[in-house]
Amino acid sequence: MALQQKGMHGTWASRWTFIMAATGSAVGLGNMWKFPYVAGINGGGAFVLVYLGCILLIGVPVMMSEVLIGRHGRQSPVNSMKETVTDSNANSKWRYVGWIGVLAGLLILSFYAVIAGWALDYILLMSSGELQGVNGSGAGAAFENLLASPLRLILWQTVFLGLCVAVVIGGVKKGLGLAVETLMPLLFVMLIILLGFSFFKGNFQAAFDFLFSFNLDALSWRGVLEAMGQAFFTLSIGMGAIMAYGAYMPQDANIGKTVLIVAFFDSAVAIISGLIIFSIVFATPGLEPSAGPGLMFISLPVAFGSIPGGLLIGATFFILVSIAAWSSAISLLEPCVAWLMELKNLSRAKANLIIIFITWILGLGSVFSFNIWSDYSFMGFNFFDFLDFLTANIMLPISGLFITLFVAYVIKSEIVSFEMQGTSGVILNLWRIAIRFIAPFAISLVFIMGVYDNFVS
Ligand code: TRP
After folding, report:
1. Model confidence, pTM
2. Tally of structural domains, the chain
């Protein structure tokens, strides 16, 4: 067994590019759209506390394990997992873990592109000035108009997937690397500007209280499962995106420190987005924090539309969301593309087109669940909600659990010590305790209780 492999896809220019790429993957619709609305539905404070606990005790350790496998295998998640399983003389069934990942990636990308499409549409809608002075019901109607039009949704879904292909086709250095190095700094600047805006123009105090007052009664087991699912989703773990990015990480980069930096950035962006959105919601009469998926798309136009010139800031916000979604979606696409290239010896371009086509077709299901299929439901979910629940709350935790068990108990210890060189002793020991004892137990408990709460009681 060679401890250091050479991959066919190349590596990032530096550790910093990996940080930008992994942060780009992590920071996305999960932070700006999903976190505020899920926190809103689950009552705020207590949910946020459980969520941050999940990030630290489960998310960070699982993420380190994923990067480790990726960097050891230096291929797509499926083959990195296979390589690591072989090198560890483990039962070959472990390699199926890589498969759940690629499948979850396709499913997530399919609905992700539809929501990202809403954000693209809203850039235009906000800049058009049409929503100037709109009230809550007017903004609600504008949002429903968008959802009611399959063609408009498909148009933007297609544009968004096109943007993703444009990046991934360029490969690791000139495509993904270049994109994240440009987009991420831009994203941070825009986020800070919007935070300043909401601080001065919104009800910042109320937003702060809502996110940080710990009212445990508002939280059910289902809420705890959602907090954990959200931790997986937002860190992009449990499906191989981080494994794929880890495969392009330079050998001398320190895994522990790097992952902690990424998790910190990611949580910071989620909290900041929550502060921005809730400051605005609480400053606007008639808007509820528990509005659900439409929270961002209904509340922000009302708030921005009430200030002269505010719609331009609103458009900026949706540009920000689109950029965040874009830098995440490329990480959903890359693992599948890398895998198809390895499997069939295809060119990057061909692999891209095949995967995007499949995703596009699947995405139509999500498009239609907001209009012509909105009456159909399966176990209480429409197609879109079902995919969201299945991937974030079921597939990601299950594959995260197996990745952790594999790295905790099965992988050859030389691989771990080789990849973890440079990670400090304290972090290494905490990580070992977390993946051996805390994460597997916590994931299983939350998973079982959450599913029970959802389907049985
Ligand atoms: N983390 C992204 C977000 O919060 C979404 C995402 C990108 C993702 N890659 C992933 C989720 C891989 C799960 C797995 O929006």
Report:
1. 0.89
2. 1
**Nearest-angstrom CA–CA distance, 27 and 199:** 22
Residue 2: inside a domain, yes or no? no
Residue with CA nearest ligand 1 atom 10: 236
The whole-number pLDDT of residue 326 equals 93
Does residue 266 surpass a pLDDT of 90? Answer: yes
pLDDT digits (tens, 9 = 90+) for 174-194: 888 888 888 888 888 888 988
pLDDT digits (tens, 9 = 90+) for 290-349: 777 788 898 888 878 887 778 888 898 899 999 999 999 999 999 899 899 988 888 999
Q: Which atom of ligand 1 is nearest to the CA of 31?
A: 4
CATH of the domain at 386: 1.20.1740.10
Site to probe by mutation for ligand 1, drawn from 111, 112, 114, 233 as the one with most ligand atoms within 8 Å of Cβ, is: 233
Cα of 71 vs centre of ligand 1, distance in Å, is 19
9, part of any domain? no
Q: Which domain holds residue 327?
A: 15-455
Lining residues, ligand 1, CB within 6 Å: 25-26, 28-31, 108, 233-234, 236, 239, 241, 328, 331-332, 396
Residue 1 token pair: 């067994």
User: How many CB atoms sit inside 10 A of residue 149's CB?
Assistant: 15
Q: For residue 211, tell me if it sits in a domain.
A: yes
From atom 12 of ligand 1, which residue's Cα is the shortest distance away? Answer: 236
C-alpha span between 162 and 154 (Å, rounded) = 12
Please, what is the angle between helix 396-405 and helix 60-73, to 10°?
Answer: 70
Residue 208 domain-assigned (yes or no): yes
